């Protein structure tokens, strides 16, 4: 009988912890992707030609990553959010908040017209990272009365070399995701960085990858599909091991 009572007590305590964790609320404050395709993993020499091609691709209206961002957004809020040990504040409570609308972020990549950043509808691009303290603390303070923390997430893409000899080779797209959680004081709680390669490929001719939107767009879609499969399997395990709010 004593053992039974102990088991019941343990169950009540664990259930209490779970309830408290789920009672926490977090505001998603930045949700974006980037049309600038990374090439650092290719270790190329003729950077001037390549830089011109990347710039042309970034500004090509036929290279449209908005549907890719939409797909990640749907999965994030409909599936991945259920694996977090907290609830997400309703999006309308974030993007329609006048203080959020008026907030002026600092540091890199705030000029989205120049650097290829695409924000999901209603969101601002707010840099988070090594020199992002002003933004992280600013967002945390802004939502401190409504949420226990703030979350930043973005997806981006880079080319990686596949099979080949010398300057002629196949190239795959690699999709990256970053999900960063901060508490209500702006202190980092955890960061998730994951990446997966596309199944689709393009080619590199004389050391320069083919950057045609008709080739690159499906590769980004393919890479995101593989990344999302990985997140489907791993996200719950990752967040369970992560420090809680």
Q: Can you tell me about this structure?
A:
With 245 residues, this protein is an alpha/beta fold. It contains eight helices and seven strands; from the N terminus they run H-E-H-H-E-H-H-H-E-H-E-E-E-E-H. It has helices at 2-23, 47-58, 66-78, 91-95, 98-102, 112-115, 133-142, 213-241; strands spanning 25-34, 87-88, 117-119, 149-165, 168-183, 188-205, 208-209. The longest helix is centred in the last third of the chain and has 29 residues, at 213-241. The chain starts with a helix and ends with a helix. Keywords: Signal. This is GLPGLI family protein.
Number of domains: 1
Helix count from the secondary structure assignment: 8
The total of beta strands comes to: 7
Distance separating the two termini: 36 Å
Bin the helical content: 40-55%
- Which structural class do you get from the secondary structure elements? alpha/beta
- What proportion of the residues form beta strands (DSSP E)? 25-35%
Poorly predicted runs: 4-21
The topology string of helices and strands comes to HEHHEHHHEHEEEEH
Nearest-integer average pLDDT: 87
Shape: elongated
Question: What are its keywords?
Answer:
28% strand, 245 residues, signal, GLPGLI family protein, alpha/beta
Give a short summary of the structure.
By secondary structure, this protein is of the alpha/beta class. It is 41% helix and 28% strand.
């Amino acid at each position: 009988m004593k053992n039974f009572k102990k088991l019941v007590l343990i169950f009540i305590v664990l259930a209490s912890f779970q309830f408290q964790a789920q009672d926490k609320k977090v505001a998603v404050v930045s949700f974006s992707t980037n049309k600038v395709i990374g090439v650092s993993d290719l270790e190329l020499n003729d950077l001037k030609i390549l830089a011109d091609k990347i710039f042309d691709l970034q500004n090509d209206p036929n290279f449209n990553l908005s549907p890719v961002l939409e797909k990640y957004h749907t999965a994030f809020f409909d599936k991945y959010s259920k694996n977090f040990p907290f609830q997400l504040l309703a999006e309308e409570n974030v993007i329609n908040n006048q203080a959020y609308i008026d907030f002026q972020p600092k540091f890199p990549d705030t000029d989205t017209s120049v650097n290829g950043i695409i924000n999901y509808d209603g969101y601002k691009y707010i840099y988070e990272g090594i020199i992002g303290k002003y933004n992280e603390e600013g967002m945390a303070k802004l939502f401190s009365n409504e949420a226990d923390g703030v979350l930043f997430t973005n997806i981006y893409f880079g080319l990686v070399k596949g099979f080949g000899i010398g300057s002629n080779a196949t190239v795959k797209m690699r999709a990256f995701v970053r999900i960063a959680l901060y508490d209500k004081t702006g202190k980092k709680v955890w960061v998730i960085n994951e990446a997966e390669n596309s199944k689709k490929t393009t080619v590199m001719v004389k050391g320069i990858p083919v950057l045609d939107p008709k080739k690159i767009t499906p590769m980004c879609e393919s890479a995101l599909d593989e990344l999302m499969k990985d997140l489907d399997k791993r996200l719950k395990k990752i967040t369970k091991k992560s420090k809680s709010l």
